[in-house]
Write a structure and sequence with these properties.
Helix content is 41%, strand content 17%. It is an alpha/beta fold. The protein has two domains: 138 residues, 3-Layer(aba) Sandwich (Rossmann fold); 131 residues, 3-Layer(aba) Sandwich (Rossmann fold). Helix 1 packs across helix 2, helix 3 runs parallel beside helix 4 and helix 7 runs parallel beside helix 8. Belongs to the universal stress protein A family.
């Protein structure tokens, strides 16, 4: 992708949790591949309201700030170790006094990408998307990557793309081709003919729909294949339930790229139903393709 490097490069949120460490490792390697700076960010959150209304001790603020500084320094060390030799990029740090979501949404104006764990220390149950991640994915003004603290995906596995012909899907396609090219892997483009369950379509009718859909996908991807001749593309069409099929196919992929909202046209603070579902379901990193602040103006 030929867009100019943003001021903060790739921004990764840290809090010392396993999910945060996984996000740092992923962000550091992606920053090295892109040759862009990495910015490590921690938000210091002090209590703003309590009941009964008792002032919290000043020592608490000091302790929280010290913990934040340690989390940032540990993350910077982890990022340095994760970058391949000969591909090191500058690592900056920021300690902000704000809610994590608000801080990251503000930073997204000058970031190429925001990377974060599925949930930090407030995780109630595995498989639940953290409140901070959820807010940032819905409101950030740049692409957002959500990383789980699961096993590391196979580096030779393909990049998986959900494509539906929407403007958000167009941005997701650009990101997916770029990631596949940089990683030297194949790209699997999956399209669901319908967002809702289809059970009454005769086999002969489905064969026609599938053929036409594959042709349409090929046409929509043709320009990117010319731009990225090194990326082998595998196209597949399913009848319905895109989230379920993406989750199943993600088992054999290293990265999933989806649009922030699909062909329903809903945008703004809303997250598409498919994007929301796969964020909760898959174990591999997911890039939600949100437009930059310049593109959305």
């Amino acid at each position: 992708m030929s867009a100019p490097v943003s001021q903060h490069g790739i921004v990764v949120a840290v809090d010392g949790s396993p999910a945060s460490d996984a996000a740092v490792t992923w962000a550091a390697r992606d920053a090295a591949m892109r040759n862009v700076p990495l910015t490590v960010v921690h938000a210091v959150v002090t209590p703003t309201s309590t009941w009964p209304p008792v002032a919290y001790p000043e020592s608490l603020a000091v302790r929280l700030e010290d913990e934040g500084k340690r989390a940032v320094m540990d993350a910077m060390k982890l990022a340095e170790e994760a970058m391949p030799a000969g591909q090191k990029v500058p690592i900056a740090r920021e300690l902000v006094f704000s809610s994590p979501a608000a801080a990251l949404i503000t930073l997204s104006d000058e970031a190429e990408m925001i990377v974060m764990g599925t949930a930090g220390r407030g995780l109630l149950a595995r498989g639940v998307l953290g409140s901070v991640s959820s807010s940032v994915v819905r409101q950030a003004r740049c692409p957002v990557v959500v990383v789980r603290d699961e096993s590391v995906p196979d580096a030779h596995a393909p990049v998986l793309l959900g494509v539906d012909g929407s403007p958000a899907s167009e941005l997701a396609t650009a990101i997916a081709f770029d990631e596949a090219s940089r990683r030297g892997v194949d790209l699997v483009a999956m399209h669901a003919w319908s967002d809702v369950t289809v059970s009454a379509l005769p086999a002969e009718d489905w064969a026609t729909v599938e053929e036409e859909s594959l042709r349409s996908i090929a046409e929509s991807l043709a320009g990117y294949q010319e731009r990225y001749p090194d990326v082998a593309v595998h196209r597949t069409v399913v009848r319905d339930r895109p989230a379920r099929h993406l989750a199943e196919m993600a088992e054999s992929a290293q990265l999933l790229v989806v649009g922030s909202h699909g062909r329903s046209g809903l945008s703004g603070l809303l997250l598409g139903s498919v994007s929301n579902a796969v964020l909760h379901a898959v174990k591999i990193p997911v890039i939600v393709a949100r437009p930059s602040s310049e593109a959305s103006d």
